[in-house]
Amino acid sequence: MLLPLKPGELQRLIPAVASGPQFNKCSGSPQQLLQRLLISSVGGVIPLLIAQGGFGSRWSSIWLVVGLVMLLYMLWGPIVQAGSRNAQLRRYPSAALFEGEIADLFTRERLEGRQETTDRQGRLEMVENRRTWLCLELEDEEGYLGQLRFPLEKGHKALRRGMTLRCLVLSERKDFSRIDRISDAWVPQARLWVGEYPYLLRPAFEELCLRRLA
């Protein structure tokens, strides 16, 4: 079942500025956090040292601002990234609330990177970093809708075929004859949110479901 959103509802469900869960998601893995810390430290300290060197009062002020901005990269980097991801969905002219079910679910191995390492004999070898993803096939009374994919976690063991699932679908077409994007989803029977990225403001979405699907 697809229920088109009213004007302004999409913007209330997907914020322009990063929410807490979105900030945490865009902060990344410990390795990414370390990279941001290095960029922030190096990019901030060097301009500040140049500013203190006194290369003209005008340029010193500019270098000081640049240094302070880079020192805050740990904070504004994830905010900018989250805002960019949110904007990708907020731009769609048509959005609808979807209620259907999990028609099927299965796992897939996904290659997330390669790195070179040495074995005990000192020979170089390529190691692949793979991660298991869970794929959900979604459908309603009108048939197949699409697929939702996200990294597999322990809590996902509660998911079963036939469970009700609610999410937003977005399209360039008003009749939704083609679905372009699917948001993260709420599975009420499992009391579980699923998805690769937390696009939705979850309390607001659950409230919308209570009002529109009651």
- Name the average pLDDT: 86
Instruction: Work out the number of β strands.
Output: 7
Order of helices and strands: EHHHHHEEEEEEH
Number of helices: 6
For the report, how would you describe the main beta sheet? 7 strands, antiparallel
Instruction: Give the CA-CA distance, first to last residue.
Output: 13 Å
Radius of gyration: 22 Å
Number of spatially distinct domains: 2
Helix vs. strand class = alpha+beta
Shape: flat
* Proportion in β-strands: 25-35%
Helix content: 25-40%
The low-confidence parts are: none
Explain this structure.
Strands 1, 2, 3, 4, 5, 6 and 7 form a seven-stranded antiparallel sheet that branches. The chain has two domains: 2-15 and 92-213, no CATH class; 25-89, no CATH class. The mean pLDDT is 86. A hairpin with a 2-residue loop joins strand 3 (124-140) and strand 4. The chain has helices at residues 9-13, 20-27, 30-52, 57-71, 73-90, 202-213, and strands at residues 2-4, 94-118, 124-140, 143-151, 164-171, 181-187, 192-194. The longest helix has 23 residues, at 30-52. Helix 3 packs antiparallel against helix 4 (57-71). It has 214 residues and is of the alpha+beta class. The chain starts with a strand and ends with a helix.
Précis, in short:
The chain has 214 residues and is α+β, with helices and mostly antiparallel strands. It contains six helices and seven strands; from the N terminus they run βαααααββββββα.
